[in-house]
């Protein structure tokens, strides 16, 4: 759908226009007037001739023209009919404020709204939303109270109306280009908005508050569009989502739930991950400043406080930020520049003995920025409110000196208040216009510094993930060299899962199903050495916890005893006898296709899988090289010293190619000095009879 007319309307109709109190139809007219909308504005209300001076007409079809945007400010029951009328007339889009649809126990009403919109390809924001504000177009399609601000370069898409309302009211140097309260997203979804905003020339960054992950493929495509356009993205995801049913029944659910996979996608997109609404807005504000990204990872922190210096160092270490020591020449120059009481180190506490000297402040910032090991300078600067007289002039001199220093510095400069309320709105906007992000809070400032260091996203990689997310047929028509696939939606017994692995060329411990005690003894002789005797059943995902296996069984009497004990305890299951593999590094390797995108999960396995919670998540598709890099990024990577990580990576990449499975988990995979082998496996067929490709 083309959203241009909705976001750049030349004419607007408000259905339900009124001047009664704080009704949505009244507030919208007031907001449009306050915003200075310059196009045609009409009301639709059969019981009124005008509202707030705006002429009213009985219906949309009675208007003197076809409106680009329609604001629907009537109760839910009448909305589908209005949407149908707007679409039939050829309107450009609509905003629906009303609640009482799916979220109010009336999904059928939302289906009617959606069907009407899709029938006419009419873009609809909502329902159950606050609307759309396109500040550059002076179009406030907004039914709530509105604090107007001058337009900037940050766009906000929020499934929470309250965040959008608060963001518009905040004073922290944040200047929005567009604000969207998307509500139920019955028609237009977050990816639709994101894709549109990527094409807006004045949008430099987008802040997303996401409650429902929605269509993962569409989200990848929209993120790719942002990558192509150089539009940065910050994301706040609401809630650690409930783990999918398949993953919850295996170890994978505990170590890589939906929230972690969603974050892995966000990081693949080069987007910044926010932990709360405050950080979301600050990240988007920093990312909107063109030229603020450093060329490398060396950060210098400047402050006039010893306490702030220590806090900055602690937070930088937590975030993995590199604070390199100053070069000898820089250190020598600093000794000549700062008071003798200052300690020459990074962070640099230059003390408050010199304050209000514009030239001195400029030279300090420029000097540090010229250090060959420094790629980014962060200055802690608090601006108390209501300063005037000599004190105000002193603080103004510092502000001017920082701006002069940023201009003279060969590397980007950031300014951050140590406390959020000490960031002056006008000063922050002045800094931003000069190419210096000004941020609210010490920890937030460092989080933004880390986000600015992120690698640029790869649009083609995101499109590959989108393609892997779309279901494709699996089974007889599949080109993958696998055996016959299981019935859709059912768990596989261990021996069935391992048959799929072997058919895909993945190394699995030797073994087979046995038909009774005598055959178990024969299997021991065939395999040689100690064996594992296990029950294999679709109902068993955690055999150790169920007492459904015996390990290191080496003699005939012990095999017979193990077989009898297992069969007697769990009748109906198959008995699997396998050769015990030699010890090695233990990994968990799993593929999930029931989250926002299909993903490979790899990390320390065996008893460490849930205890250490040390896994990497790689959205699919995943090459062996990408998987090996993920393995080496684990906190416990040192425990894998001497293990054949390339072999483990090849095994994991091959696992991800098996079609028809919603989940397959191999835990442990034993990795030796040469080679890797699957010891245990659980799998569940894809419920729809197809798999992500």
Write up this protein.
- A seven-stranded mixed sheet has the order 3-4-2-1-5-6-7, with helices on both faces.
- The chain folds into five domains: 1-130, Rossmann fold (3-Layer(aba) Sandwich), CATH 3.40.50; 147-290 and 456-469, Succinyl-CoA synthetase domains (Rossmann fold), CATH 3.40.50; 299-452, Rossmann fold (3-Layer(aba) Sandwich), CATH 3.40.50.261; 510-579, Dna Ligase, domain 1, CATH 3.30.1490; 585-692, D-amino Acid Aminotransferase, Chain A, domain 1, CATH 3.30.470.
- By secondary structure, the protein is of the alpha/beta class.
Concise structural overview:
The protein is of the alpha/beta class and 693 residues long. Helix content is 37%, strand content 21%.
């Amino acid at each position: 759908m083309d959203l241009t007319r909705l976001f750049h309307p030349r004419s607007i109709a408000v259905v339900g226009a009124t001047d009664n109190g704080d009704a949505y139809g009244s507030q919208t007219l007031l907001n449009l007037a306050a915003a200075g909308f310059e196009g045609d504005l009409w009301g639709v209300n059969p019981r009124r001739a005008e509202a707030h001076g705006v002429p009213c007409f009985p219906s949309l079809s009675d208007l003197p023209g076809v409106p680009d945007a329609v604001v629907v400010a009537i109760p839910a029951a009448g909305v589908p009919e209005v949407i149908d009328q707007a679409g039939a007339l050829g309107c450009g889009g609509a905003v629906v404020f009303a609640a009482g649809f799916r979220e109010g126990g009336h999904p059928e009403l939302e289906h009617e709204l959606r069907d009407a919109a899709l029938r006419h390809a009419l873009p609809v924001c909502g329902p159950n939303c606050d609307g759309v504000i396109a500040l550059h177009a002076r179009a406030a399609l907004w039914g709530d109270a509105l604090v107007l601000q001058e337009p900037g370069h940050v766009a906000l898409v929020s499934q929470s109306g309250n965040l959008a309302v608060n963001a518009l009211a905040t004073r922290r140097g944040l200047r929005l280009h567009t604000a969207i309260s998307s509500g139920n997203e019955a028609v237009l979804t977050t990816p639709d908005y994101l894709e549109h905003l990527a094409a807006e020339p004045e949008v430099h960054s987008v802040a997303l508050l996401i409650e429902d992950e929605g269509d993962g493929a569409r989200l990848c495509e929209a993120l790719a569009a942002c990558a192509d356009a150089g539009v940065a993205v910050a994301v706040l995801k609401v809630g650690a989502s409930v783990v999918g049913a398949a993953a919850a029944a295996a170890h994978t659910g505990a170590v890589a739930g939906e929230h972690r996979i969603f974050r892995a996608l966000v990081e693949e997109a080069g987007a910044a991950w926010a932990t709360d609404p405050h950080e979301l807005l600050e990240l988007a504000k920093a990312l909107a400043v063109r030229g603020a990204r450093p060329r490398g990872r060396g950060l210098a922190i400047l402050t006039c406080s010893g306490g702030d210096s220590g806090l900055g160092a602690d937070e930088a270490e937590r975030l993995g930020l590199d604070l390199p020591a100053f070069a000898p020449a820089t250190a020598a120059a600093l000794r000549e520049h700062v008071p003798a009481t200052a300690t020459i180190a990074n962070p640099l506490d230059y003390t408050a003995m010199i304050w209000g000297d514009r030239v001195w402040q400029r030279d300090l910032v420029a000097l540090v920025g010229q250090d060959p090991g420094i790629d980014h300078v962060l200055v802690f600067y608090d601006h108390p409110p209501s300063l005037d007289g000599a004190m105000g002039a002193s603080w103004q001199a510092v502000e001017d000196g920082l701006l002069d220093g940023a201009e003279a510095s060969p590397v980007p400069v950031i300014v951050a208040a140590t406390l959020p309320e000490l960031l002056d709105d006008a000063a922050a906007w002045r800094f931003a216009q000069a190419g210096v992000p000004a941020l609210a809070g010490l920890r937030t400032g460092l989080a933004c510094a880390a986000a600015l260091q992120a690698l640029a996203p790869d649009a083609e990689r995101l499109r590959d993930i989108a393609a892997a997310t779309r279901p494709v047929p699996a089974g007889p028509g599949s080109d993958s060299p696998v055996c016959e696939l299981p019935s859709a939606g059912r768990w596989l017994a261990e021996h069935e899962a391992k048959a799929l692995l072997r058919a895909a060329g993945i190394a699995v411990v030797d073994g087979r199903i046995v038909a009774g005690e005598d055959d178990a003894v024969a299997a021991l002789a065939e395999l040689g050495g100690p064996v594992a005797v296990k029950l294999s059943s679709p109902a068993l995902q955690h055999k150790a916890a169920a007492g459904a296996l015996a390990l290191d069984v080496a003699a005939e009497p012990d095999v017979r005893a193990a077989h009898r004990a297992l069969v007697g305890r769990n009748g109906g299951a198959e008995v699997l006898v396998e050769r015990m593999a030699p010890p090695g590094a233990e990994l968990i390797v799993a593929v999930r296709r029931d989250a926002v995108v299909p993903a490979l999960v790899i990390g320390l396995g065996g008893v460490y899988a849930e205890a250490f919670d040390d896994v990497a998540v790689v959205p699919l598709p995943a090459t062996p090289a990408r998987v090996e890099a993920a393995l080496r990024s684990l906190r416990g990577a040192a425990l894998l010293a001497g293990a054949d990580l390339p072999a483990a990576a090849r095994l994991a990449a091959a696992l991800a190619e098996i079609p028809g499975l919603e989940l397959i988990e191999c835990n442990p995979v034993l990795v030796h000095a040469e080679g890797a082998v699957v010891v245990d496996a659980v799998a569940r067929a894809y419920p729809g009879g197809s798999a992500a490709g």
